[in-house]
């Protein structure tokens, strides 16, 4: 099949005798966006991804989607990969869009999402040291979260669903904390388990030894922190988060991993609301997780389960369990169908009057998506999501999203 420009669309038309002009032009452009010196020891490549997304929102927008009405969300992402000899690598990711999460701000907003320098001291991948602003090492979704790789448009539940835990103003009592269940989600104040890929700032050490992978990181903010907290700030790593993952690949089809993270999740403005004698370092977010992936013929499977504890001032330990199971079936080499089941279950806290109550509303979410890759430069997806909470106040039960991505 071939790619041709026509009006404002790229159309894929089979031609037995004619070359595919549109695709050839993009192939040539991709080649021209690569630079290297005479001996090839230094090479830099620019990759561009252009996303056009549309969202139909039912009721309040769910997860990390901001507008409470249907909207259009354009995005341009620029990746600059540079290799310096055999032992140094750098990455810069810049974006122009409506904010890090869909519809958060008005277009255009420009920023650097990632920048890192990696040192591989040996000729093998046994050990790597990395510094900068980059995604968390936890789990397996982050490794495939960009629009070109993910079968879906929105993240799984652990990376998107906002809990009632606040980062800036802690509750004054257990009753105050429990009452948040009856309020609309406050996305500027409350946090999820992990905020998307969590591009926080710091360093990591990672590598592979035989069938085992390892990765550890020391970052300036928790994995649940808002995107504006991810860059270097005045905390100067006084309240860092430590995270890691150990992976095992018994054969090419399977990949298992266990992850953890621990670190303060409250921001500096929360200090005046803490009990006397307490500091931000006394209240941590603790995550333990297991992830698995499996590939078999036309099938691909992924899954993750998180056990999370937020140490909440004036309320106690708030525990929850979150998981998702995801599958993709490649109907043809270009067409796929994907489905994902998500669930979140909340624990109980003492309510201050002699009893216990769950601190959040248990919820389920089902996602289905259909995707088609027209060429190696163009793909399209459509997704439907349904979620339901065990509560009278729902947070957008139905969502329909579409996405077209052009990458070169």
Structure report:
By secondary structure, this protein is mostly beta strands. The chain folds into two domains: 1-32, no CATH class; 47-73 and 141-407, Beta Barrel (Porin), CATH 2.40.160. The chain has two helices and 21 strands. The chain has a 16-stranded antiparallel beta barrel. A two-stranded antiparallel ribbon has the order 1-2. It has a two-stranded antiparallel sheet with strand order 17-18. The chain is globular, with a radius of gyration of 22 Å. The two termini are 18 Å apart.
Task: List key phrases describing it.
disordered N terminus, single chain, Porin, mainly beta, 2 domains, 21 strands, 2 helices, 16-stranded antiparallel barrel, 408 residues, two-stranded antiparallel sheet
């Amino acid at each position: 099949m071939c790619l041709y420009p026509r009006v404002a669309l790229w159309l894929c038309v089979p031609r037995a005798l004619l070359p595919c002009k549109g695709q050839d032009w993009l192939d040539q452009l991709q080649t021209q966006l690569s630079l290297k010196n005479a001996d090839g020891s230094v090479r830099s490549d620019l990759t561009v991804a252009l996303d056009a997304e549309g969202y139909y929102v039912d009721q309040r927008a769910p997860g990390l989607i901001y507008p409470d009405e249907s909207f259009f969300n354009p995005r341009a992402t620029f990746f600059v990969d540079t290799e310096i000899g055999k032992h140094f690598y750098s990455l810069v990711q810049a974006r122009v869009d409506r904010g890090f999460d869909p519809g958060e701000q008005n277009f255009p907003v420009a920023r650097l999402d990632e920048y890192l320098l990696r040192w591989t001291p040996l000729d093998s991948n046994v050990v790597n040291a990395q510094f900068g602003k980059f995604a968390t090492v936890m789990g397996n979704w982050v490794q495939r979260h960009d629009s070109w790789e993910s079968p879906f448009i929105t993240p799984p539940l652990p990376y998107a669903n906002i809990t009632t835990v606040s980062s800036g103003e802690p509750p004054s009592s257990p009753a105050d904390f429990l009452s948040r269940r009856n309020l609309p989600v406050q996305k500027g104040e409350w946090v999820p388990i992990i905020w998307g890929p969590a591009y926080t700032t710091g360093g990591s050490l990672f590598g592979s030894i035989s069938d085992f992978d390892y990765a550890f990181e020391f970052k300036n903010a928790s994995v649940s922190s808002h995107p504006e907290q991810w860059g270097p700030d005045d905390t100067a790593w006084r309240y860092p988060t430590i995270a890691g993952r150990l992976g095992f690949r018994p054969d090419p089809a399977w990949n298992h991993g266990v992850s953890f993270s621990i670190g303060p999740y409250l921001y500096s403005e929360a200090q005046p609301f803490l009990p006397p004698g307490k500091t931000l370092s006394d209240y941590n977010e603790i995550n333990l997780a297991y992830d698995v992936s499996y590939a078999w013929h036309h099938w691909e499977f992924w899954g993750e389960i998180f056990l999370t504890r937020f140490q909440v001032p004036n309320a106690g330990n708030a525990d929850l369990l979150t998981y998702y199971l995801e599958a993709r079936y490649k109907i043809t080499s270009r067409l796929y169908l994907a489905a994902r089941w998500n669930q979140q279950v909340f624990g109980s806290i003492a309510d201050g009057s002699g009893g216990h109550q769950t601190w959040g509303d248990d919820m389920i979410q089902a996602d289905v998506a259909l995707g088609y890759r027209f060429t190696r430069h163009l793909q399209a997806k459509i997704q439907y999501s349904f979620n339901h909470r065990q509560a009278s106040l729902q947070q957008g039960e139905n969502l329909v999203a579409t996405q077209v991505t052009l990458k070169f």
